[in-house]
Amino acid sequence: MLELKHALDAKGHCLLEMPSGTGKTTTLLSLIVAYMKAHPLDLTKLVYCSRTVPEIEKVMEEFRKLMNYYEKEMGMEQNILGLALSSRKNLCIHPSVSKEREGKVVDGRCYGLTASFVRARHAGDDAVPVCNFYEGFDAHGKEFPLPPGVYNLDDLKEYGQAKGWCPYFLARYTITHANIVVYSYHYLLDPKIAEVVSKEISKTSVVVFDEAHNIDNVCIDSMSVKITKRLMDKCSNSIQILETTISNMKENDNRRLEKEYQRLVEGLRDANIARETDMALVNPVLPSEILEEAVPGTIRTAEHFVAFLKRVVEYIKTRLRVQHVVQESPAGFLRDIHIKVCIDRKPLRFTAERFSSLIRTLEISDLTDFSPLVTVSHFATLVSTYTKGFTIIIEPFEDRAPTVSNPILYFSCLDSSIAIKPVFNRFQTVVITSGTLSPLDMYPKILDFHPVIMTSFTMTLARPCILPMIVSKGNDQVAMSSRYETREDTAVIRNYGNLLVEVAAAVPDGIVCFFTSYLYLETIVSSWYDQGIIDQLQRHKLLFIETQDAAETSLALINYIKACDNGRGAVLLSVARGKVSEGIDFDHHLGRAVLMFGIPYVYTQSRILRARLEYLRDQFQIRENDFLTFDAMRHAAQCLGRCMRGKTDYGIMILADKRFSRADKRSKLPKWIQEHLKDTNCNLSTEECVQISKRWLRQMAQPFSREDQLGISLLTLEQLQSEEMQKKIHQRAQAA
Amino acid sequence: MTSSSSESILLLVSHVKLKKNEGELYLMSERLGWMVGNKDSFNVTHKYCDIKTQKISPEGKPKVQLQVCLHDGNATTFQFVNPAGQAEQMADRDKVKDLLQLTLPKFKRMINKDLEEKKLFLSENPQYRQLYMDLVKSNVISAEEFWADHATQFIKQQQDAKNAGQQDVGISASFLADIKPQITDGCNGGVRYLLTSDVMASIFRTYPSVKQKHLKCVPNKMTEEEFWKKFFSSHYLHRDKNINDTKDLFTDCGKQDEQILRQDLSTAIKDPLLDLTTLNDVVEEESSSTPSNSKINNIAHQNMIRRFNQHSILVLKASEQAPGEQALESSVPEPAPSKRIRLQEAMSYEDLESNDTDPTVQLNLSRIERYLNGPPTTVQSQTGVNGNGSTAAHFDIDANAFKSILGRWMRGGGERYNPLDVLNSATAVNVLGELSIGGTLMRGSQPNSAIHLTSELQKELKELYVSLSEILKHFWAAFPPSSPELVQKTNRMIDALHKFNQAKLAPYEQKLIQASTSSEAENILKPLRFQLQAAIRKHSQLSERRPLPRAAVSSM
């Protein structure tokens, strides 16, 4: 809190690492709300960004609790409005649209019901369907702002149902005057969405990025484009559709096309009078400078533009036909496209904007068919806008299967600071926090900002809740490692298997294992099957394995939890960087032990990664190895942190790789794990590890009462105010 | 051979090893025994009645063995080592086995399980044991009555046990692994699988489609053996096998399982916190629709992984539903607790919650002496158990009074509670006077007499109280005796009381008189007698009013 206060006072950015379950969210919320109440002019808004929908909802519930407390203590209603925002899929209450499961379809159908031209048509002809909820919102919603309170996603839906207003648009409208906004960090980082949603958030806001250990990857993903052969084929199809629609329209209603042309001459700014529902297609770059200018003449008429698009698509197709790997800079790409098909940089920059305008004019209500073209138009705009920090890589085939032709064009962002820069520049305080941010000093470098505060907190615990151990060898003394040279070695695989079997026999309830990649998981499982290790494992616990199919994995997960709940116990094999490692908590009995098989390095042979490493080395003076280790260790820590979600929880953390015990890896673990990692536990064999775990589990299984924690991890009000404790707190604060 | 000389030896087998020592096995009329060859007393004897079962080693094992399992969980294993060869050893073993098979059922002690349970219960609950000793041993009430009526805890315990017994044993996850292929002799390269009925049941429960197949095929199309042979070569056991082999009998089974899984995929994922597909808020770009991407690498591996998942899921499902019946009912999942509740659960800490309970309510007594002394015992005819209609009216009045008092509390309680409202100063002084020494309220607490009982007598007195109150409890519980059964019960109880008086109270009084004076004894036993008299008086009143066939009762 002290650190956070400093940061707020200094109006600077800060970086905080706090173990999960220590009240990170509550601390942030309560201090910032208090600050807002004390200095209503300095700080007007809190934007809280989290990663997944359940996390967003959790934050909202915390906030609700805080507000209840305020009300109880102050005895009156608080004039604070907080709300959560999510995609249409999670907020839609339209009877038929909300039934759709896929987000894209929901967006498309919503657009089809709420776009301005559809509504205009509805005004003339009642048979054209519109969304009643949106109509209701449009008619009344703007005049009556949401009363102060806490609105989670479900609350918004209820409110919307009661009033007959669309919750999604209501929430988006309310963002501008809400005090607390909680949403996914794509809404702020992805320029495509940020422009629509977060444009009007004032400068005097605090932005919190929770669970931000992966924030650089999110930044990069939001600016990168991947184009495959299939995508291009679909593009050609949709261009044909466009052509026919335009010719049809020309015969029937030439006037509209002309009107559009006039508008484009005047400049895009007027064309862009905020019609929120028309914002289904958005510009991927921050377009302020573009909007100043008029659309270049070459692509003003619809036919010309479609022909232009066709040329771009054909050009990309020819590029995809290469036989060898090509890597080039955006500048090189632009030169090449100019030489080959005579396309200038300037019209290319307007592609995305022009395309959305065209879609609007043509009154195409079903957007789902055009998503490939959208991707291409984004690519065109991005490639012509940014020349630095990006690279283009064309791979004709995959490295693993060089005979199968599967050309892919990657337009990859190398610099994660590009996407987040506007955020840092615009808002007075940005808080980046997570349970696992170590090593902290890497983040300012790769995100290119200067934090005023950078701290890693540890936990005060009444008992040793976590037992981190590094297992470096099997019972036969063969070193365990997922090093490339040894990972196929049967002895290593067998040792990993034996470790898991013995741990499964000793540890109650759930065990979660993380592998370095899907590929590695698959090979290991199959050799375990051949070695009979799976059979041994099944004698102790049920076995569930994460697959690449998200739905299947969810099913396995549900059954895993069921198995843990009914006492059978289960083992879940999963993958670091996979969906499970990022979004699911294994608290209490769901994860009594986590095993990390190997160090989760990224696939270092990937060209994108290599390009990025090179860029990092040149621009930020970060050594390749440093970055790789940093990246691997933060994912390892993330996996380990899955099992520890609070002070009453306890879990074993086993790092099964020899290399973990080296100082450069060990020192990169979060402080709260390092604290418990004793030197004696850094080079264990399987047997020793199991012995230690057994003893520790017996100790942890003793009843844990309030009295045990009192004075250590739980303070009564008197204790908190006592002089001694005050002194201690002061000391801590000084030391930190 | 001292003890066995009198018994007839039914069978004697030599060359029997027990724990590496060779000796002889004797089967006698009531027990079996084993002795080392050159000795003349048994090293080991088991009575037949102690033996639960016998087990023999499977055929093909190098050792020919016979195991005798006892009721207490121990077991003794005999190995037959006839030098004449394995065939002889087998013959020896079979002789023993057959004889045991014949004799054991005769001795199968019909263990009265019930009795054992009762014994256990009594030894675990000393207070019941004491009660049992006092009441049953002294013939105050019969044993059956005791178990039926008095040992309420026992009855409850039994019911619990009955309920618990309904829980099924789940299926081991590794039942397929237990069917380990065993290479027999190596010469003909055959592989043997061991299939027990347990495993078979597990397979059927886990894979309903296999069960259907079994029902369909077995007697008509193929023999049991053939069926299982096919099963062993199917993908169930060889998980890396490709399922698309059309010749395989179980291909469609596999497809059926797959279909069930698919169905689950669409229906079962209801928990929004766990659905990975909806975790991300932002619509991904088409990336999911490129399955060709990395799936080329190894379909066999992926199939295997899926099969492991499927296996675990099915095992879990099978153990959820009771075998056979209820399959449909139990598969309907109970609605998951609402999202909000779960979110709140996830973030609340018990120890941080405020633990102050509601503000206490001032106890407002209208008649303090009633609170201190309890209802006056002299008016025992009014105590509500007499079955008169008048009590109902009383209750009504009481209920109303109670409500009004409650209302006053509610109004007085809470925030607006003012301590000055409770007493005015005059009453306070009054009460203080009464509470100080010499005041009316302090009189009762004077030590009424200096009786010092020895601890033994005290203990006995306590037991008497317990026993008496137990009988009285049942006596009064039978009121009003509206049905003939209840009337009979009161009669039985009154008999028991009489007996109690004679068998217990009178001797104790004698003892007391010996220890101290008779008046003191009188004093001590007064409450007991009083209770006894009250019951007897009540009963006589009742029987006067309604002449009962006492003869019939007493003949019981």
UniProtKB/TrEMBL annotation, chain A:
<protein>
    <recommendedName>
        <fullName>General transcription and DNA repair factor IIH helicase subunit XPD</fullName>
        <ecNumber>5.6.2.3</ecNumber>
    </recommendedName>
</protein>
<dbReference type="InterPro" id="IPR014013">
    <property type="entry name" value="Helic_SF1/SF2_ATP-bd_DinG/Rad3"/>
</dbReference>
<dbReference type="InterPro" id="IPR006554">
    <property type="entry name" value="Helicase-like_DEXD_c2"/>
</dbReference>
<dbReference type="InterPro" id="IPR045028">
    <property type="entry name" value="DinG/Rad3-like"/>
</dbReference>
<keyword id="KW-0004">4Fe-4S</keyword>
<feature type="coiled-coil region">
    <location>
        <begin position="232"/>
        <end position="274"/>
    </location>
</feature>
<keyword id="KW-0539">Nucleus</keyword>
<dbReference type="GO" id="GO:0005634">
    <property type="term" value="C:nucleus"/>
</dbReference>
<keyword id="KW-0234">DNA repair</keyword>
<keyword id="KW-0479">Metal-binding</keyword>
<dbReference type="GO" id="GO:0035315">
    <property type="term" value="P:hair cell differentiation"/>
</dbReference>
<dbReference type="InterPro" id="IPR006555">
    <property type="entry name" value="ATP-dep_Helicase_C"/>
</dbReference>
<comment type="similarity">
    <text>Belongs to the helicase family. RAD3/XPD subfamily.</text>
</comment>
<keyword id="KW-0175">Coiled coil</keyword>
<dbReference type="InterPro" id="IPR010643">
    <property type="entry name" value="HBB"/>
</dbReference>
<dbReference type="GO" id="GO:0046872">
    <property type="term" value="F:metal ion binding"/>
</dbReference>
<keyword id="KW-0411">Iron-sulfur</keyword>
<dbReference type="GO" id="GO:0005524">
    <property type="term" value="F:ATP binding"/>
</dbReference>
<dbReference type="InterPro" id="IPR010614">
    <property type="entry name" value="RAD3-like_helicase_DEAD"/>
</dbReference>
<dbReference type="Pfam" id="PF06733">
    <property type="entry name" value="DEAD_2"/>
</dbReference>
<dbReference type="GO" id="GO:0043139">
    <property type="term" value="F:5'-3' DNA helicase activity"/>
</dbReference>
<dbReference type="GO" id="GO:0003677">
    <property type="term" value="F:DNA binding"/>
</dbReference>
UniProtKB/TrEMBL annotation, chain B:
<dbReference type="InterPro" id="IPR013876">
    <property type="entry name" value="TFIIH_BTF_p62_N"/>
</dbReference>
<dbReference type="Pfam" id="PF03909">
    <property type="entry name" value="BSD"/>
</dbReference>
<feature type="domain" description="BSD">
    <location>
        <begin position="198"/>
        <end position="239"/>
    </location>
</feature>
<dbReference type="InterPro" id="IPR035925">
    <property type="entry name" value="BSD_dom_sf"/>
</dbReference>
<dbReference type="InterPro" id="IPR011993">
    <property type="entry name" value="PH-like_dom_sf"/>
</dbReference>
<dbReference type="Pfam" id="PF08567">
    <property type="entry name" value="PH_TFIIH"/>
</dbReference>
<dbReference type="GO" id="GO:0006366">
    <property type="term" value="P:transcription by RNA polymerase II"/>
</dbReference>
<comment type="similarity">
    <text>Belongs to the TFB1 family.</text>
</comment>
<dbReference type="GO" id="GO:0000439">
    <property type="term" value="C:transcription factor TFIIH core complex"/>
</dbReference>
<dbReference type="GO" id="GO:0006360">
    <property type="term" value="P:transcription by RNA polymerase I"/>
</dbReference>
<dbReference type="GO" id="GO:0006281">
    <property type="term" value="P:DNA repair"/>
</dbReference>
<dbReference type="InterPro" id="IPR005607">
    <property type="entry name" value="BSD_dom"/>
</dbReference>
<protein>
    <recommendedName>
        <fullName>BSD domain-containing protein</fullName>
    </recommendedName>
</protein>
<keyword id="KW-0677">Repeat</keyword>
<dbReference type="InterPro" id="IPR027079">
    <property type="entry name" value="Tfb1/GTF2H1"/>
</dbReference>
<dbReference type="GO" id="GO:0005675">
    <property type="term" value="C:transcription factor TFIIH holo complex"/>
</dbReference>
<dbReference type="GO" id="GO:0006289">
    <property type="term" value="P:nucleotide-excision repair"/>
</dbReference>
<keyword id="KW-0805">Transcription regulation</keyword>
<keyword id="KW-0539">Nucleus</keyword>
<keyword id="KW-0804">Transcription</keyword>
